[in-house]
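Work Package 3 (structural annotation) set out to generate three-dimensional models for the target panel prioritized at the project kickoff. During this period the team completed the workflow that converts sequence records into discrete structure tokens, so that structures can be stored uniformly alongside our sequence database. As a representative example, we reproduce one entry of 240 residues exactly as it appears in the project archive.
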Amino acid sequence: VRTINDATCAEANYTRATVSKSSSTTTTTNSSAGTLADQIRARTSGVSTATTTTTTTAPATTTLPTASAPTASQPREYGIIGLLDIFGFETFEVNRFEQLCINYANEKLQQKFTQDIFRSVQMEYEMEGIELEEIKYNDNTDVLDLVEGRMGLLAFLNEECIRPNGSDKTFVYKAQNGNKDNPCFFRAKHAPDTEFGIFHYAGPVTYDATEFVLKNTDTLPSDLQDCASLSTNGIIAHEL
């Protein structure tokens, strides 16, 4: 009996210590061994071990709400931001064919920006009969005419590429004669035969036309052209 009482007191003390340290609800079920007191009772009285369930309850905790994930019927929608990352206007100590192509691309982008921001707004105001003060801005149409116009640099360069014995010097000579009155074209009086300059939107750039004809006649390999022709994109398949 003393042994049973000691075990019961020990169990009670253990239970109180466990309850004081616990911060959450715990349910403990022991169906095989039972509590220590039950085991002692079973040994002394020959009674089988009983199933005991001990339950301790801790203060309820508050759970913050969380955002539910989108279901299959409610797909997640994302916005799209497009970025165009290219080289800016370039000018080095020696500017070659690559710099001309890069600066030409920037001139086209500058024209696109000007049309979208200024010209399109002015035309829209005029169509709606809204008075608008004149907006002055720098237009680079004259620079693009010099590069891609009927008497532009690219036209003379293409001509030298298909002409027998075409040369870089002849290209510069024709470009100068065809654009004497164009304020965007300049060439120093005693400049080398392959040197010319353009007043770009961002500033003047002096070019060395060495290997202009050679680089402009470079073509895509035939296997790349065959691969492009199989594209589902019409521009790549037919215009490349």
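The chain is about 45% helix and 10% strand.
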